[in-house]
Amino acid sequence: MNPRPWLDSLRRLAVTAALAALTAAPAHADMAKIRETGTLKVALYKDMLPFSGNDGGQFTGIDVALANALCKQMGLSPSLLPFDADDDSMSDDLRNMVWKGHYLGYGPADVMLHVPVDPVFMRQNGEVLIFAPYLRENFVLAYDRERVHEVSRFEDLTGQPTGAERGSAGANALLSSAQGALSSKVKIYPEADDALHALFAGEIAAAMVTRAQYESALKARGHSDDRFAVAEIQSPVLPVRGWAVGMAVKADQRALAEALESALEALRASGELQQIFAQYGVSLVAP
């Protein structure tokens, strides 16, 4: 009997098994490597107050505290990789910080925080696994009650100066609202915090910012809620219910994703997640 067909079959089986092992191994291999090194590399935006930012030379914020808490829960040491947001697309941020690495040699990290958990966005970025939403963000109109008694629609601000961060959806909402009637009074600021500073200083009557930006700025400046209020006003350029925010890892790193999700649930169950948000004066809105 010619042994050749049997040998060929064995070789094919060996090649198939090897390919299967190569395909299946990375998820567990990378998690094992993380455990071996004892360090989790976490990508965080540099300037996204109150979630991350420079406070007197110290990198701090909600996402920074969350990264440290997740690592502690997992028995790992955090290695934080702050990065600048890409001007063009968050998909580029995922490429640079999660699944490929920056061409300058920075990254990739094991996980990136503050990623939109959105079905369309997820389908557009198949190289990553987006999971574990930990809050829901939304835009609000913060206004000065001493200048505007009550705001329930954009038209209530007619003739009043308003402000928003350059390039934000909040700025687009103000500029396009009320058939453009407010556009001549809209002031665009480099950062949302600048618009809020102008609001608190009485320079403008209202600012379109995220709820987290408003609440953290209010706490930091020690203002009371009596003078300022917020209204949730619908706009075609804003998500109706806001957007959920979670994490991202490489698409094949399900073991890491499961470990992170378990750690997040433990923080939520113990109340530590709520405490992190409360430290910055921000309401934890369930995703």
Detailed description of the structure:
The protein has 2 domains: 26-136 and 243-279, 3-Layer(aba) Sandwich (D-Maltodextrin-Binding Protein, domain 2), CATH 3.40.190; 139-231, D-Maltodextrin-Binding Protein, domain 2, CATH 3.40.190. The chain has helices at 4-37, 62-74, 90-99, 119-124, 169-176, 192-200, 211-221, 254-270, 272-279; strands at 39-45, 53-55, 58-60, 77-83, 111-116, 128-137, 139-144, 162-165, 186-189, 206-210, 228-231, 243-250. The strands form 3 sheets. The protein has a 5-stranded mixed β-sheet with strand order 4-1-5-12-6, sandwiched between helices. It is an alpha/beta fold. The longest helix is centred in the first third of the chain and has 34 residues, at 4-37. Helices cover 40% and strands 23% of the residues. Strand 2 (53-55) and strand 3 (58-60) form a beta hairpin. The chain contains 9 helices and 12 strands. It is elongated and about 60 Å long.
Ends apart, CA distance between termini: 67 Å
Instruction: Tell me the structural class.
Output: alpha/beta
Give the number of domains: 2
Fraction of helical residues: 40-55%
From the alpha carbons, calculate the radius of gyration and give it in angstroms: 23 Å
Shape: elongated
CATH superfamily of the largest domain: Periplasmic binding protein-like II
Let me know the average pLDDT: 89
The number of helical elements comes to 9
* CATH-derived topology of the largest domain: D-Maltodextrin-Binding Protein, domain 2
pLDDT below 50 for ≥5 consecutive residues: which ranges? 1-27
Biggest β-sheet description: 5 strands, mixed
Strand content: 15-25%
What is the CATH architecture term of the largest domain? Answer: 3-Layer(aba) Sandwich
